[in-house]
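Supplementary Note 2. Why include the ligand at all?

Several targets in our set were suspected to adopt different conformations when bound, so apo predictions alone were not considered sufficient. For every target with a known small-molecule partner we therefore ran a joint prediction. The input for aspartic acid is given below.
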Amino acid sequence: MADAKLSTSAVSSHAFSYQPPAINGDFVGKHIISVDQFKRQDLDILFDAATSIRKRIRTHDRGLTELCAGKVMASLFFEASTRTDMSFQAAMRRLGGDVIAVSNGVRFSSMYKGENLSDTVRATGCYSDVVVLRHPEIGSSYEAAYYLDLLNARIDNPTVAISGGDGIGEHPTQALLDIFTVFDQKQSLDNMTITLVGDLLHGRTVHSLAKLIAYYDAADVRLCLVSPENLRMPADITALVRSHGISVCETDDLQEVIADTDVIYWTRVQEERFADAADYERIKDRYVMTPQVLAQTKPDAILLHPLPRKHEMGTRDDHDIMDLDKRAIYFEQMENGMFVRMALLVKVLRGVYV
Ligand code: ASP
Ligand code: CP
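The joint prediction is reproduced in token form.
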């Protein structure tokens, strides 16, 4: 496999014209590839289900394993992942479903013989009910959804795509679990100042999260975007957020906003997205969360991070101190990922009330 390479042209023109279906209160059979599909009512349905599932897990409710019994989830991850991949797998198994993946990892899939993504996804769709896809190219999940629709018109057992992150585009299920976590901790998003910090240009989690904050439609939300000038949030996303009546501030100075922030969302500089390693080196230590920085936040602020964390969260010793601070809720956030993904799988595959 020494010179096997993932095709760099995974995405066809179809991906860019594909419109993902709006949820509108009904998740069944719908691909989940962008937060643009969600409105507040859809989030309420999903979060009720996630809360119920969490309670049922904690009370060892065996009935959960009936919810997706007989269903198969395919895990197709062409980029590194710990949380998204494993939480989806755990979610499906806890719902009684099965999980398939290429036996020796995707590097032994036929994509490394040169097969294109649309054929690989359709092959996967022939054997599963849901394909969770992570791929380095923006638009890859749209490509998967478009071609699965074509396949679904030909076979009896339709398959949905769920994005596990597409390049620097979106990470919709991460944003769902992020908003769920904020809601869980604060009971509301009303009157919150939410600050996103770091690589807002390449970070797909913050792209989805900023939009989902807008779609959540809370009252009096302020969104602060803290990044170096060259890593700012894409302008179309800030425009969309503003069009929902949210006041957006953009700055490179964390000190301007940290003391007034209720929800602080720290992110990793996305090293793998930089064409020039020197550019990454110049920027990587621009914002570092440490116990001293955390101490500047309100006593009831919450600190989220999609993880993995590197030096943008200081040293290992810093981690150990911050992990004990009640404001740091990234472990709760990470655990919530499984509950939210369980809720999503049940809603998409079965549509039942849980
Ligand atoms: N795990 C998240 C993602 O895949 C965030 C990160 O990697 O920094 O987008
Ligand atoms: N938050 C997140 O997507 O983590 P992984 O990259 O480990 O899946």
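Residues 330-349 form the longest helix (20 residues). The chain has a mean pLDDT of 95. Comparable summaries for the other entries are listed in the accompanying table.
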